[in-house]
Amino acid sequence: MSDVDVPKIDATIVTTLAEELPRQQARVREMLPIYRECGRPAFMALAIIEESLRKADEAAAAGDVVGMIRAVEDLRGYQL
Predict the structure, then answer these.
(1) Where are the domains of the chain?
(2) What is the pTM of this model?
(3) Which residue among 28, 62, 70, 80 is least enclosed by CB atoms within 10 Å?
(4) Helix-then-strand count for the chain, H and E
(5) Buried-state track 49-66, b at ≥16 Cβ within 10 A, e below 16
(6) How far apart are CA 26 and CA 45, in angstroms?
């Protein structure tokens, strides 16, 4: 055996792309009503979020793995 330390991965935090993309899509979709309630000041943010969701939907429907990875990273950036 070598003296190289191999990091241990916590299996509870490892998810697949097939699990993570729908999870992020649902999480971000739950934010939409909150942005809509804000009215005009939130219209730009709402449009950007909806565009991100559209791209995620398209990537998933096309089976575009690179697009789905980009979509997950994009959607993770949305917070309330």
Answers:
(1) 17-76
(2) 0.80
(3) 80
(4) 4, 0
(5) beebbebbeebbeeeeee
(6) 17
